[in-house]
Each structure stands twice: as C-alpha cells, then as structure tokens.
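FORM 7B: Structural annotation worksheet

SECTION A. Query
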Amino acid sequence: MKIERFRLLASLIFSACCTVMASAAHAAGSCPNDGTVRFGVEPYESTARLLPVYTDLADLIGKKIGCKVELYVATSYNAEIEAMRNNKLEFGQFGPLGYVLAHQVAHAQAVAGFAGEDGKPANYYASIVTWPNSGIKTLADAKSRSFAYSDPASASGHLFPAYGLRKNGIDPDHDVKGIYAGSHTASFEALRNHKVEAGELNSEEIASAKLHDEYDPAAYVTLWKSEPIPQDPFAIRGDLPAEFKTRLAGVLQTLDFHELPEADQKFLAANEGKALKTVPQTDSAYDQIRDLVSTLHIDLSKL
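SECTION B. Predicted structure
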C-alpha cells in the first residue's frame, strides 16, 4: 500500500514538474529577442532619477508579461528612435513629438498612455493669453506686441503657441516681439506683472499657480487655446509577432503603479499623472502634433 502511494506521489510530482517546464518553455518561446524584451525611455529627467524608477517599472512589466525586460535610458529622443528603428527595442515610452517621428521612421505604434484623474488618457493644453486693458482684444491684435515664450524647445511653451499664431495668419518669429522667458513660471510671471503684453500659459502652470494661490482667472484673457495635448505614450515596435504585441499591449494598458515602491509612485505622480495607472491610447491622438509639425515646417530629426 505504501509503495502504491509512493508511486502515485512520484507520478504526480513528475507530472507537475513537466507542466512547469512546459509552461516555462512556452513563456520563453513567446518572448522575442531570445527571451529578453528591451524597453526604451526618453531622458525627460536625469538618468540618475530615471534609473531606479524605471528599473522597478521594467521588473513589474517583466513579471506581468513573463519575459525578462531590459531597460535602456536613451541619451536623447533621437537615440531612442534609432534604437527602435534598428530593432534594438521592442517597446518604449516616447515624448509626443518623439513618438510622431518614431511612428514615421521606426514603425512605433502607440498602445497605452498615463491615465488622468478622469480615467482617460492624461493630457494638458497650451494657450495664448493677455491681461485686461493691455489693448489686445483678439489674437490678431497681438501683432507687433511683446510676447513671452518659455523655452525654444518647449512644446507647450513655444511650439504650440507658435502653431496657434501661424494658424491665425501671424508669423510667430517676426510678427510678434518674442522673448524667451526661460521657463513656464517665468513666462507666467512676465504676464502676471505686465512685463509683456501677451504670452504662453499652459494648463500645468495654471494648476501650479492655483496651488500657490497665485492665479486669478479674471486677471487673464485667453486669446487662443490648443486642443488637448496627449502626454507620453507607450509604443510597441510594429513588426513584432502578433501574439506578443497583443499580450504586451494588454499589460501596458493596465499597469497600476501602486504596485511600485512609494518613492517611484511619487516620482511618476509628479511627472506623468496623479492617477498612477495606464489606459489604452491610439495613434490618432497625436494627429494634432503632426499638424503642428507640418504647419511650422519642423524637421523632427534635428530637434
């Protein structure tokens, strides 16, 4: 009787081991690049700050997808795009402008984005404002007036306001007396203190000013406002095996950053969205970025 029980137990153990080995083999076989999936991140913060957070995030994604995920923090957004174009990345997080170029030259496909507090993809907006009694009633009146941009490389602080001006027949380089204040806050202060007659003001700076009780809506007149600008997408390389793409997209669309250490959560909440989750995102959400690129004749490869 004991022998029969032993044989039965041995058989069950052997069967279980075979099942585990088969599952492991299946998982390894369904992971591209010999089982290592490479994850690129644009350097929107210093590498020293990004590495600990995104190393944890890479590990989380790896556990959910059943593959080893190797992190690559790029030196520039062009370096990340080139890595994907040369099949050295399976997926990545791109900035909006970077994604448009990555889709164009590296077949990147946006599948997920950080969630806003409403459960939809997080976004923000750019605007052009003046102040009461500045003498500016419409955007056309901004011609020949002093105008504050934040920084030449800023999407909402320069490119989008320039796009708004150009769309309304105003040359953003020559028809306004543009200055670069240096930051969104500096641009806001120039407007607030009437140092310029018009300028850029984005929704994130407004939110920050409200937190410090420095924003009075009655003190500003909005002349132009952009459509919602989507934040950084997670994008998958388009030529990956269909089964893996579907599986990876499903993981990226349902991440919950509350599973990460508290320090990581604080970093992501400050930089990417307070909801600390991801939701599905689509390529068409970036069509406004494409129109901006076309309207301003921007060569993305030279940014």
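SECTION C. Observations
The radius of gyration is 24 Å. Residues 226 and 286 are 13 Å apart (CA to CA).

SECTION D. Sign-off
Analyst initials: ____
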